[in-house]
């Protein structure tokens, strides 16, 4: 209809110009009533179209606003130039000045400025209390569309892999057309972009800075992700309805908050709330105040305080740098000297009791008051087989976890997520985004090892693979503070496994620049596809490694064993000098405790 209006308007204008210029004024000229009626009808349709598209947050409302403005100006001019002499002239002039031209100015303003200012945007929810109902979200009931895999609007994503095939429909019918901007450039962001591209409601996908894999799904833009000024400028240029921030650095730098202040809906917590990841001591304060089960801890500045805390808890010692440390801030060791050295090097540290048990990642999508948990996943953090070697960003992941308690997600929601959201809201920093609870399943019950303020990487790759609720609608609802309207999440059956292909020298000193081959062959293994984590194009267009974790080979299957077999079959087809991967991802149940050096 929007296009029809524009085409109709464009066709009508030359005729009106001809009439106004060539015919003498005469009240009996048949053209005039026809032209007036035609113009008025077009204007009414244009205004109606613009209003409806605005309410649906459809960017095409800019087009109809521009067309309507042109029609109104043409109408004003036509009325004045063809008015019958006498009182008719005065009436036409008044109509033009009081009605048509002001409405045209409004439409022109809407077309130029975008419609964000007048569209129905939910007001940021800063209320102190948790009032929304909990949605446990692990049931599988509400599928609406039978759209085949890999046919999302962006259209180029790898084929769906689940045994049931993904059902793609908008949640709650709230959104009909959404432009999304994804901030980040790793495997997690490629997984987000892939899932977003498969949501029929997502009509346009942008990513910044993105990577060569994401480039197949989204238009890429160059931006420094943690610079609010640059990200806001990009948002103004691309006019997204939803911005999804992938990594922690922009969140802790306050980019989500800056975007919200600038009027954009953003999935990601404000700076104050993101400090649950940005400061280990802040996270402990929140957990203590909220009664969330976690390791007993002391925040220490200075060697004397550190010594006292180490002696209080005894070995194995757990020493955590307070701030963001790119995965290198935590030392778990039986060597008191090493623990003390790390504490001295870090300045402020959190020293805590050692937790013994398998680790699980549970993600919750939160809208400030309401939250929904996703499938629990396991991350393999250590570099080498048998959970040996240095900590990494994660060498692989799998979901669901057959060995974990069936009610783990529900328990995490009620014992960890809801109290944390309530405490943050009480402090005036409601949490809107992904709250990552890293849990240790101890013999005394679940304990929170850490919070992160974003999807875990690479757990997101497998969790999003299994999510069949369309991601764009879900994240938009959370960003808008309206999660309660989305209903229960739906999941594909079976299991998903991801294996990280790392560069030579990772994690200590990864070697970049090696050419990558075999991605297409890997994706031909049934149920498999490859996400880009640390890749780039060199000057001659070759795909090369540009980070320590280079690719994520993801595979799904009817069970974990099948998914694992496919993932490793696909991983074996990747060719890159010096590349390596762990061979025991998803090999069995979690292998027990955190590794101690
Ligand atoms: N209290 C603890 N007891 C035993 N192991 C622990 C404890 N705290 C942390 N660890 C181990 O250290 C790892 C890193 O700790 P933590 O998750 O707090 O740090 P991080 O640097 O924020 O990690 P990430 O990079 O995953 O965000 C944990 O995954 C766990 O294996
Ligand atoms: Mg962390």
Roughly how much helix do the residues carry, as a percent range? 25-40%
DSSP, total strands: 22
Give the termini separation: 66 Å
How would you describe the shape? elongated
Q: What attributes characterize this protein structure?
A:
single chain; Dna Ligase, domain 1; alpha+beta; five-stranded antiparallel sheet; five-stranded parallel sheet; binds adenosine-5'-triphosphate; 597 residues; binds magnesium ion
Provide an overview of this structure:
This protein has 597 residues and is an alpha+beta fold. Among the domains are: 2-113; 296-354, ATP-grasp fold, A domain (Dna Ligase, domain 1), CATH 3.30.1490. Helices cover 37% and strands 19% of the residues. The protein has helices at 2-22, 31-55, 61-82, 87-113, 187-197, 228-238, 248-252, 255-261, 271-278, 280-290, 303-313, 336-346, 408-426, 459-466, 471-479, 519-523, 560-571; strands spanning 178-184, 202-209, 219-220, 242-245, 266-267, 297-301, 317-321, 330-333, 348-352, 359-367, 371-373, 378-379, 382-384, 388-391, 396-399, 432-442, 445-452, 495-502, 528-532, 535-537, 543-545, 549-557. The strands form 6 sheets. It has a 5-stranded parallel beta sheet, with helices on both faces. The protein has a 5-stranded antiparallel beta sheet with strand order 12-15-18-22-19. β13 (382-384) and β14 form a beta hairpin. The longest helix has 27 residues, at 87-113. The radius of gyration is 28 Å and the shape is elongated. It starts with a helix and ends in a 26-residue tail after the last helix. Mean pLDDT is 85; it is low at 115-174. The structure holds adenosine-5'-triphosphate (ATP) and magnesium ion. Residues 295, 318, 320, 325, 327, 329-330, 332, 352, 354-355, 359, 381, 438, 449-450, 452, 594 line the site of adenosine-5'-triphosphate.
């Amino acid at each position: 209809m929007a296009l029809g209006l524009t085409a109709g308007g464009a066709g009508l204008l030359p005729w009106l110009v001809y009439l106004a210029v060539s015919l003498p004024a005469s009240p009996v000229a048949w053209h005039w009533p026809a032209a007036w009626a035609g113009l008025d009808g077009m204007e009414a349709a244009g205004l109606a179209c613009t209003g409806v598209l605005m309410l649906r947050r459809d960017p095409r409302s800019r087009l109809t606003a521009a067309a309507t403005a042109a029609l109104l100006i043409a109408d004003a001019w036509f009325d004045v130039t063809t008015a019958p002499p006498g009182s008719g002239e005065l009436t036409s002039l008044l109509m033009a000045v009081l009605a048509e031209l002001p409405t045209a100015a409004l439409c022109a303003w809407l077309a130029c400025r975008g419609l964000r200012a007048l569209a129905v945007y939910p007001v940021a929810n800063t209320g102190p209390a948790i009032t929304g109902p909990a949605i446990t979200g692990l049931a599988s009931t509400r599928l609406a569309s039978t759209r085949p895999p890999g046919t999302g609007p962006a259209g180029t994503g790898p084929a769906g892999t689940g045994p049931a095939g993904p059902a793609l429909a908008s949640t709650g019918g709230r959104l009909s057309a959404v432009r999304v901007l994804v901030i980040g450039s790793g495997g997690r962001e490629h997984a987000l972009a892939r899932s977003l591209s498969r949501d029929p409601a997502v009509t346009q996908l942008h990513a910044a800075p993105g990577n060569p894999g994401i480039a197949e799904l989204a238009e890429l833009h160059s931006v420094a992700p943690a610079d609010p000024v640059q990200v806001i400028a990009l948002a103004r240029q691309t006019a997204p309805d939803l911005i999804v921030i992938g990594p922690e650095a922009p969140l802790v730098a306050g980019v989500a908050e800056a975007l919200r202040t600038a009027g954009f809906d953003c999935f990601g917590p404000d700076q104050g709330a993101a400090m649950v990841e940005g400061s280990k001591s802040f996270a402990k304060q929140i957990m203590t105040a909220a009664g969330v089960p976690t390791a007993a801890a002391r925040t220490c500045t200075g060697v004397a305080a550190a010594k006292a805390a180490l002696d209080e808890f005894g070995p194995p010692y757990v020493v955590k740098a307070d701030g963001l440390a790119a995965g290198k801030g935590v030392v778990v060791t039986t060597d008191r000297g090493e623990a003390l050295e790390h504490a001295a090097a870090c300045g402020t540290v959190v020293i805590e009791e050692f937790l013994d048990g398998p680790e699980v990642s549970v993600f919750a999508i939160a809208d400030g008051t309401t939250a929904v948990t996703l499938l629990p996943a396991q991350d393999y953090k250590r570099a080498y087989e048998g959970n040996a070697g240095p900590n990494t960003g994660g060498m692989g992941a799998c979901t669901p976890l057959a060995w974990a308690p069936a009610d783990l997600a529900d328990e995490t929601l009620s014992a960890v997520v809801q109290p944390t959201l309530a405490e943050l809201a009480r402090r005036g920093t409601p949490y809107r985004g992904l709250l990552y609870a890293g849990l240790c399943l101890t013999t005394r019950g679940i304990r929170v090892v850490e919070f992160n303020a974003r999807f875990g990487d690479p757990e997101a790759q497998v969790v999003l693979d299994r999510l069949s609720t369309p991601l764009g609608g879900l994240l938009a609802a959370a960003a808008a503070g309206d999660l309660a309207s989305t209903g229960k999440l739906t999941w594909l059956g079976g299991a998903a496994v991801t294996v990280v292909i790392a560069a030579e020298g990772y994690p200590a000193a990864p070697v970049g620049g090696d050419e990558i081959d075999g991605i297409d062959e890997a994706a031909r293994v049934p149920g498999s596809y490859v996400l880009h984590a640390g890749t780039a194009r060199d000057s001659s267009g070759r795909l090369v490694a540009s980070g320590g974790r280079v690719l994520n080979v993801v595979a799904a299957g009817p069970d974990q064993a099948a998914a694992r077999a496919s993932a490793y079959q696909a991983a074996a087809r990747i060719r890159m000098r010096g590349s390596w991967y762990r061979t025991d991802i998803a090999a069995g149940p979690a292998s027990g405790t955190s590794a101690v050096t």
